[in-house]
Amino acid sequence: MGSPQGGRLVRDTARTGDQWFRLLLAAMAAAVPFVIGTMVVALIAAAWPAILRFGARFLITTTWDPVASQFGVLSFVYGTVVSSALALLIAVPLGLGVSIFLSELVPGWLRTPISFLVELLAAIPSVVIGLWGIFVLVPWVRTTAEPALQASLGFLPLFRGPPLGLGLLTAGLILSVMVVPFVVAVSTAVMRAVPTAQREAAQALGATRWETTRTAVLPYARSGILGAIFLALARALGETMAVTMVIGNVAQIRVSLFAPAYTIPAVIANEFAEATGDLYVAALVYAGLVLLVVTVAMNALARLLVNRVVQGPSFIAE
Amino acid sequence: MPKQLEVRDVETHAPTLVGANTAVQTDDLHAWFDQLHALRGITLNVPERQVTAIIGPSGCGKSTFLRCLNRMHELVPSARVSGTVRVHDQDIYAPGIDPVLVRRRVGMVFQKPNPFPTMNIYDNVAAGVRLAGERDRRRLDDVVERSLRAAALWEEVKDRLRKPGTSLSGGQQQRLCIARALAVSPEVLLMDEPASALDPAATLRIEELARDLAKEITIVIVTHNMQQAARVSDVTGFFLGGQLVEFGPTNGLFTRPTDKRTEDYITGRFG
Asked: Cβ of A203 and B75 within 8 Å?
């Protein structure tokens, strides 16, 4: 304790330590966007020959013929989009069910272990899930799921053709397992961020548990849930290893979900090492660029939507 | 009436003292949050079609009491209740009673306006009736207009029923929430400090509204504002430490409190 009047308020030397510290932190913060920026520039540069040669046609043609130097990514885009869509079709209802259970129904002591287990699923390495896919999922799909689907829904072209096990359906299934934890984690968080006052408003009107969820919780959390879906989609689109192991890796577009297909990440992973010739490499990088743009857009959209719920309502009374 | 009534007598006779029937009757009502004994044996009779104010310092159990009257208290995990609550002679804690149906007869308005942000004004008011299964457009229109008129909001919103409920001012939002509660035709309306988030002008409107509504239904209002209790209520109960200290006609309680603690509280010596 100094005397009440005696403390000096002027320094002899500037606080240089503070300035260095600030500079260092600013440099660290700038490093991440810098890496992303150079990554995009490098990708564009590496893809440049293919961009010049094929332009937008690259996106709408299916020929992938390294020998003839003809490249089009449409069949890979198709495989990527359809397997991801299938994954969402399965993972979104399942994940939302789990989230509603976790945020609205489960007794407190059970919530932590369940969400821990669900989130643990996200920690399993992709290649391990792929192995499980090859040894468990593929045989099951070939001998059980596909014959059953063909018998019951075979009138739809989607479920026709020889049951191979390796194909779009299996890829969709394995992807759904991988994205469920994302759907659950994000939508549980946004549902739990719904103010108690909203639930009580519904309950005081005589709403049951489910009616409260339907009228108060889900509408309030809807943009966050949409964000969870986009996040899952971005994850599914970019997933490489597990999908490559079960999708069959045939560059084709078939209506049947039983048919083998190919995805953008899979073709890059499989062919990059043996790609000969500048144009071939450039075409693969160009495909990667397409994937990057799509997934970054999905992620950005997801974040925007989730923040709108979590940061709280800008719309509640003054 | 004798000069010094026993507290116990006042509790049960309050309705007769203001010339009303009993709408809600609690007997030895206890409530807990986990280990916390929040209500310690409340016995009182709420008069029908009157405004009953519950006052007391923070943490005295007044909101908990309110939430026991429509079985909202038990929605908090680890909350417990014992004793009886009768609403028009029906024990709402009896076995086989569905709390969901209780809450349609005993409505509630909360501290902060909580309209459903994704619904427009019309849908907010209609929400409870729709939950009860009403789908007929004409009847819904009727209920919405009647409830908004009852909540003194109709004239202000009739031309913008399709605008979001949250586009209204705070006071209007609270009246919207009152309209939403009235739409399911409750017999009793519980108001938990309904004006504590509002400015003085909006507060007065809510108070006038409570007085008007009491012509038709029974109102129980929790407030930390003694002037508000004096302005709005016919009967007042003073809670302290989870117990009912004094309960009787508002005039008498504020001018001639029978308990020293009531006197200390209303003269501002604590609280």
From this structure: yes
Q: How many helices (H) and strands (E) does chain B have?
A: 11, 10
- Give A149-157's long-range contacts (Cβ < 8 A, gap of 24+): A150/A258, A157/A255, A157/A256
- The residues, ordered by sequence, that sit 6+ positions from B119 with a Cβ below 8 Å of its Cβ are A219, B127, B164, B165
DSSP states along B234-257 = SEEEEEETTEEEEEEEHHHHHHS-
Tens of pLDDT along B118-139? 999 999 999 999 999 999 999 9
Spell out, as residue ranges, where chain B has pLDDT lower than 70.
1-14, 17, 271
Q: Could you tell me if residue A218 is inside a domain? A: yes
- A231-247 tens-digit pLDDT: 899 899 989 899 999 99
Q: What is the largest CA-CA distance in chain A?
A: 92
For residue A195, is it within any domain?
Answer: yes
- Kindly state whether residue A38 falls inside one of the protein's structural domains: no
* Chain B residue numbers touching A107 (CB-CB < 8 A): 77
- Average predicted confidence (pLDDT) for chain A: 89
What DSSP state is assigned to residue B162?
A: T
From A205, A202, A179, select the one nearest A92 (Cα to Cα). Answer: A179
CATH number at residue A143: 1.10.3720.10
| Phi, psi angle pair for B28, to nearest 5° | 50, 50
Q: Report residue B178 as tokens.
A: 């009152």
Q: Establish how many alpha carbons lie within 13 A of residue B197's alpha carbon, considering only the half-sphere containing its beta carbon.
A: 19
Instruction: Look at residue B12 in the predicted model and tell me its pLDDT.
Output: 66
Is A309's Cβ below 8 Å from some Cβ in B?
no
Are A213 and A102 in contact by the 8 Å Cβ rule? The answer is no
First and final C-alpha spacing in chain A: 44
In degrees and rounded to multiples of 5, residue B33 shows phi and psi of -115, 105
Q: What pTM value is reported for the model?
A: 0.82
Angle at B142 between CA B136 and CA B146, to 5 degrees: 145
Asked if A309 and A190 count as a contact pair (C-beta separation under 8 A), the reply is yes
Q: Which residues of chain A have pLDDT under 70?
A: 1-5, 12-14, 310-318
CB contacts, 8 Å: B170 with chain A: 317-318
What are residue B54's DSSP bridge partners? B222, B237
Tell me whether residue A63 is in a domain.
no
Give the contacts of A107 (CB within 8 A, at least 6 positions apart): B77
pLDDT of residue A311: 63
User: What is the domain extent for residue A172?
Assistant: 71-311
Count of CB pairs separated by less than 8 Å, A with B: 87
How far the first Cα of chain B sits from its last, in Å, is 31
Give contacts of B128 with chain A, Cβ < 8 Å.
205-207
Residue type, A63: T
> How many domains are there within chain A?
1
**Nearest alpha-carbon partner for B178 in B154, B147, B223:** B147
> What is the H or E stretch that residue A268 is in?
helix A264-271
Asked if the interface predicted TM-score (ipTM) of this complex is over 0.90, the answer is: no
